From TrEMBL:
The chain crosses the membrane at residues 74-92, 104-127, 139-159, 165-189, 196-217, 223-241. Keywords: Membrane, Transmembrane, Transmembrane helix. The keyword Transmembrane applies. InterPro entries: HAAS_TM. This is HAAS transmembrane region domain-containing protein. The lineage of its organism: Bacteria, Bacillati, Bacillota, Bacilli, Bacillales.
Length: 255
């Protein structure tokens, strides 16, 4: 017997809240599945999720989170993947543009950017899990944060253009090696995470770069055009995910 839609929504929110609070995936899954079993039995007796947790959903999630240890290894892994992912994307974009190079502003700025973005994203995920928005609103908020990430990138690029700093220029062989390493990183990270979202996101980021290269635009116009195309691509991707999930729910609903 499956739990009710209300209970399932609560379990999904609990899982999201704990993961975004830096808790271990295995322990989080165990807690969620144990609670699912309790809810299944309780609903057979006519009870609901409120009867089982004995608190408001917000208070219950926060209480469970306080009782679980913080997973520093997971946080470090996520930070490493995000930083290397950002640098890999930038290198791949530069290689497509004619040659990779990194300035000190970029080397320092992008890790800081990723820290800000990760903290903001974790805050967003905890907020959405506590307030239990519908999927459409969740995807819209995530799309907005995708645009925030792009805006932060543009801010670092603008700062890099405004301030002279030492630049590391890659040789032709270095470009080839960097391209192979970045592609290998994206494939490896996707296999590790068991999702193709990173590769799809990279394609959404890179394709506008290729398109803009074929147009005769000013530097400012290129940045704006790429930003609009990337935002549109991310929005379309999350919209398609939302439609796919709705289709699954429709087919799963008994007549």
């Amino acid at each position: 017997m499956n739990v009710s839609k209300k209970s399932e929504t609560f379990l999904e929110s609990l899982h999201l809240y704990l993961i975004s609070s830096g808790k271990k995936e295995t322990e989080t899954r165990e807690i969620v599945e144990e609670l699912r079993d309790h809810l299944t039995e309780a609903e057979k007796e006519g009870k609901n999720v409120d009867d089982i947790i004995g608190l408001s959903p917000k208070d219950y999630m926060e209480q469970v989170s306080r009782e679980m240890p913080f997973d520093f290894r997971m946080l470090f892994s996520a930070f490493t993947i995000f930083v290397f992912g950002a640098l890999s994307y930038l290198l791949l974009g530069d290689i497509i543009s004619g040659g990779a190079q990194l300035s000190m502003i970029q080397i320092i700025g992008y890790p800081i950017l990723m820290v800000v973005y990760l903290l903001s994203l974790a805050t967003l995920l905890r907020y959405t899990s506590l307030h239990q928005f519908d999927k459409k609103k969740e995807y819209m908020l995530i799309s907005v944060f995708g645009f925030l990430k792009i805006s932060l990138f543009i801010a670092v690029i603008s700062l890099d253009q405004a301030i002279d700093s030492p630049v590391i220029v890659f040789s032709p062989l270095g470009n080839i090696i960097a391209a192979l390493l970045t592609i290998g990183f994206f494939i490896g990270a996707s296999l590790w995470a068991k999702t193709w979202i990173m590769i799809i996101t990279v394609l959404i980021m890179i394709i506008p770069e290729i398109l803009v290269q074929s147009l005769s635009l000013s530097e400012e116009a290129s940045l704006i055009t790429k930003s609009v195309l990337i935002f549109a691509g991310l929005f379309l991707y999350f919209w398609l995910l939302n439609r796919k999930e709705k289709s699954k729910e429709t087919y799963a609903t008994p007549f």
